[in-house]
Amino acid sequence: MTEVRVDLLIAALLGGPALIGWGMINYKKKQLIDNTPRSKVRSASMGMIELKGFAEPWKKIQAPVSGSECCWWRCKIEKHVRSGKSSRWQTIKQVDSVLPLYLVDETGRILVDPSGAEVDAISKTQPCTGSEPYFTTMGVLKQTGFLSLFDIGSRYRVTEERIPIQAPLYVLGELMQRAEALEARRQRYQDMIRAVKKDSVKMAVVDTNKDGVVDGHEWDVYRAQLEAQFILEEEKRAAGEDKLIVRLPRNSEPFILSVHEEKSLSSKYALLAFGLIPLGIAASGFGVFYGLSIGIPQTQMILGWLACTMLGLRLSFSLRGPARRWAAKLGVLR
Questions:
Q1: Which of 46, 121, 175, 305 reaches 20 to 30 Å from 2, CA-CA?
Q2: Which of 89, 113, 97, 108 is nearest to 330 (CA)?
Q3: Helix, strand, coil percentages in the chain from 3-state DSSP, rounded to 5
Q4: Structural contact between residues 203 and 279, judged by C-beta atoms closer than 8 angstroms
Q5: pLDDT tens, 69-107?
Q6: CA distances for 174 relative to 113, 248, 252, 254, 325, angstroms
C-alpha cells in the first residue's frame, strides 16, 4: 500500500503558489529596473527614482571581519548543524551596519538610508571553528556580540558583505524629504516667532497704527515678511545640509542597492522570475495530481488548492520590510 505523504501534499500546494509569487516579485523588480528613468542627483524629483554613481561614507566604518573601511557592511554567522542523516547551515546571528551612506555622481551627492534594502554587495565567506584564535582577536566581533556565539569544536562559517568606499553604486528607491530636517526647520521657525513675540521693540514695529494693540491684519503682514526672511536664511543653511534622502519606499515598492551594473541586476531578476514561476506552476500541479491520486474528492481538492494558492501568494507578497528581514534571518530568503 502506498504511503500517504500529507507533508508532501501541503508543501506542494503551499510552496507552488509561494514560488509563483516570489517569481512575480522578481519580475516586478526587473520591470522597475528596466523602465525607471535614471536621474541625476541635482535634478532628482520626489518619488521612485533610479540613481547611479559611486559610494562615499557618511561616516567611515570598518567591516567587522576584514577590518576594511567601507560605507556599509553586513556580517552573518552560520553554524553547521546535523539532523539525522541530513545537515545544513543555520544562521545564528546577522548584523547590518545602520549608518547611511552617500551616492555621488557628477552633479552632486545624496544620502541613502540602507535600512530595509535588498543589498547586492561584495561578499566573502570563510569557514572557521570556535577555537580559532583569529576570531578571539577581533575587537569589533566582540563588541557586536559575535564571539559569545562560538562553541569550541563546532563548525561555523562567516559571511561578510560590504560596499567599499568609491565602489560603483546603483540605487532604486524612494526619494523623500528627511523627517529630521523638516522637524528641525519647523522648530527653528517656531523659535523665531516666539522670539519676536517676546521682543517688545519688534512688537512695537508690528503695531503700525500705534494704537498699542497688534491686530490680526498687522500680525499677518509682519509674519509674511518674517517668512520671506526665514526662507532666504534657510536656503543659505540648506547648502551644507542633507535635506533629501533615498529610503525604503512607503508603498512596498522594491528598494535595491547594488555594486553591480544595472544590466546584470536585470538579468539576475529575470532568471529568478522565469525560473521560479514555472517551478511554482509545476509544484502546484503536482500537488493537485498527488491529492487526487490518493483519493481526495475532486471538489475538496479544488477548494483546498484555491485556499493554499491564496495563502501561498499572501505569504510571498507579505515578505517585505520587517517580515522579509525576519525571513532572511531564518534562511528562508537571502
A1: 305
A2: 89
A3: 45, 25, 30
A4: no
A5: 999 999 888 888 887 778 888 888 888 888 889 999 999
A6: 10, 6, 10, 9, 19
Q: How many CB atoms lie within 10 A of CB 93?
A: 16
Q: Of 245, 291, 303, 218, which Cα lies nearest the Cα of 12?
A: 291
Query: H or E element: which one contains 147?
Result: none
Helix axes 298-318, 262-293, angle to 10 degrees: 160
Q: In angstroms, what is the C-alpha Rg of the chain?
A: 28
Output the pTM of the full model.
Answer: 0.66
**Sign of the dihedral through C-alpha 164, 168, 174, 178:** positive
Backbone angles phi, psi at 46, to 5 degrees: -60, 150
Length of the chain (residues): 334
Strand partners, 81: 88
Quickly list DSSP for 165-187.
TT-EEEEEEEEEE-HHHHHHHHH
DSSP 8-state secondary structure symbol assigned to residue 37? P
| DSSP class of 142 | H
Per-residue pLDDT band at 32 (split at 50, 70, 90):
confident
Backbone angles phi and psi of 64, in degrees to 5? -70, -30
How many other β-carbons are positioned within 10 Å of the β-carbon of residue 129? 14
Provide the pLDDT for residue 321.
Answer: 42
Pairing state between β 256-258 and 118-120: parallel
How large a percentage of the chain has pLDDT more than 90?
Answer: 15
CA angle 163, 256, 15 (to 5 degrees): 120
Torsion angles phi and psi, residue 143, rounded to 5? -65, -35
- Partner residues linked to 70 by β-bridges: 61, 164
Model pLDDT for residues 278-333, shown as the tens digit of each residue: 988 888 888 888 788 888 888 888 888 788 888 777 776 665 444 444 344 433 33
